Amino acid sequence: QKEEWAKLVNDQTTTSDGEHVELAANIGTPKDLEGVIANGAEGIGLYRTEFLYMGRDNLPSEEEQFEAYKEVVERMEGKPVVIRTLDIGGDKELPYLDLPKEMNPFLGFRAIRLCLEQQDLFRVQLRALLRASAFGNLKIMFPMIAVLEELRQAKALLNEEKDKLIAEGIDVSDSIEVGIMVEIPSTAVAAPQFAKEVDFFSIGTNDLIQYTFAADRMNEQVSYLYQPYHPAILRLVEMVIKAAHKEGKWVGMCGEMAGDEVAIPLLLGLGLDEFSMSATSILPARSQLLKLSKKELAEFAQKALELDTADEVAKLVRENYISE
Ligand code: PEP
Ligand code: MG
To answer: How much is the ipTM here?
Structure first.
């Protein structure tokens, strides 16, 4: 199997009925790029920038961030790189920001909520991203968007910083795509509205599943409620993809579910355009996708949506699409 996978490193990911999907990688630092390139990723679907801010006692400067983002887009040589703005809070703390302890950190002051409040910190990151955009195919993604106003505010700040940089004579790409993570149920349900104001969506199932079932993703006692194959999740995914495609926008997924062999046939059938996963999952996923027919799976996915439980869905996929 390993040998079969190795032959696929330089291939595109095209299904048996000739449909192209993009297989991208999730990274946390530029150091991860070696594995990404060795495993034949067609892009970066999620660069988690919070690692730049963690394990230190002060904020990273604009220059430091610029260097990191520039390195990633340059080494990806024109392939798409989706960089997510700071997603701190929840399980990821930054002691030096001195944030108050919260009863429910996952429901609290995190990610875009914090960035819109602490604008100085956010503007530094936006400037670094805008400057790096001149060196490759950089896309910007905002995490934990729950309502349209957050997206509009974040985009307004981005445009302000862009105008300032241009006025300073600094090069900025004029074709940066701006998208959001869909990881809160309100955003999945309101996807038709969001789709008009973004260039792309990336579904963050790690959080979307936790918020849909109201079950902490870190708590073992409720881990049985972490159910990626549940028809409720599949329906949310379908809603997001349909809404985006209606507006001519693309949809990725960067939660763990995107690299899961049981989920992949369903996601292909629901019309997902980009699958972003850890680098080591890319070649197995490519090998699997080459053998699948998107047209056939579109019908199959509709059957799965009608089932009652996650177990039933998993069983149906395994019986039909996973060879032991
Ligand atoms: C997600 O929520 O699915 C996601 C990709 O983001 P993170 O795991 O960093 O919260
Ligand atoms: Mg998340």
So the answer is: 0.99
